[in-house]
């Protein structure tokens, strides 16, 4: 099992998060979560307010890599891949209409 790397925070910065109780406006990609503390910890850790998406996210080698910079690059690439996949799906829908 991979442990969360101290002083990383890449998954609290790189991805977007949908609106929820803790983040009423959601969080845009590439912007640090307002609940990320100055020493790169989650201020909501262990509380019921922490978003479900954060609680269910587990550190994994494919995502976390060997450094915060590597994790950030991977998460940005994954977000771009998701956007590309959505655009391809939309284009294929349009092309059959
Ligand atoms: S990317 Fe991985 S190591 Fe970095 S904060 Fe998230 S779970 Fe922890
Ligand atoms: S709520 Fe906590 S774990 Fe979730 S993105 Fe914000 S700082 Fe990170």
Structure notes:
The protein is mostly helical and about 100 residues long. The protein has helices spanning about 50-55, 60-65, 70-95. It has one domain (about 10-95). It contains 3 helices and no strands. The longest helix has 28 residues, at about 70-95. The termini are far apart. The protein binds iron/sulfur cluster (2 copies). One iron/sulfur cluster binds next to helix 2.
Which structural class do the helices and strands define? mainly alpha
Q: Please state the oligomeric state of the protein chains shown.
A: single chain
For the record, the count of structural domains works out to: 1
Main beta sheet? none
DSSP, total strands = 0
Straight-line distance between termini? 47 Å
Rg (CA only): 15 Å
Assess the beta-strand content as a share of residues: under 5%
State the helicity in percent bands: 25-40%
Mean pLDDT: 90
Low-confidence stretches: none
Name the hetero compounds present. Answer: iron/sulfur cluster
Report the order of strands and helices. HHH
Q: Please, how many helices?
A: 3
**Tertiary shape:** globular
Provide a compact summary of the structure:
By secondary structure, the protein is mainly alpha-helical. 38% of the residues lie in helices and 0% in strands.
What attributes does this structure have?
single chain, 3 helices, 38% helix
Topology:
Elements: H1 52-56, H2 61-64, H3 68-95
